[in-house]
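User: 1-acyl-sn-glycerol-3-phosphate acyltransferase, Hoeflea phototrophica:
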Amino acid sequence: MIAFRSILFNAAFYINLIGRMIIFTPYYFLAERKAAWSIPKNWVRSNHWLQKVIVGTTFEIEGLENIPEGGYIFAPKHQSFWDAYGLLPWLDDPVYILKRELGWIPLFGQYIFKMKMIPVDRGAKGKVMAKVLDRTRQAMQSGRQLIIYPEGTRRPPGAPPSYKYGIARLYRDLDVPVVPVVMHPGLFWPRRKFLRFPGHFKVRVLKPIPPGMDSDAFMQKLIDVMETESDALLIETVGANPHLPLREDARRRLEELGALPSGAKAG
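Assistant: Predicted structure for 1-acyl-sn-glycerol-3-phosphate acyltransferase:
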């Protein structure tokens, strides 16, 4: 049944995406930029509904009161394709730093250009990176939210931390708060897997780290806060969803924490 529901959801996900792009693209490109955000944000909401109805996966967000006004860096855990889009409706005017090749994809490239995302050549240095930083600073000053995944790429639940120092440089140079976010959607939507599992998970928005700290001290605080809260939430999520199959990283971490449930299924 899980395999059937997963296939059904995956099909519905892409049909929903393509259908909305066909129907709403004219409005998207004619509307003022911030008004046009309603198109992708409503697409996200519809995906949450599809995941709830078809798969049986629900979620809740804790700590929305910790989100500050104005510009800040939004720093979530990254485990799944879900967290690449799932929180957009709760962000006013987000901006990503994207590899420039994404702008070459037909239509998608025009979508991200409309939203004034910031393209970057990952091999670029010197003046090019200074220009990227200047564009990012302008976005912050206009009250936008920069989304940065501190570990850079998707990591499975329970995987050893692998934080990149780039967020510390941005924190120093942009002089804005950083809002850490922990969650475990990867238990329900595993990376590189087509299966989608039912259950309920929490997204926990933590208190912002204010600007002005030394870069190294900031980095250590970010890691300590996120890993401590991530461990606590992993224990809570697995305890509330005993049916979930656990992959190697999650099982290992729960064993280290002394919290692996007896009879836990292997993923």
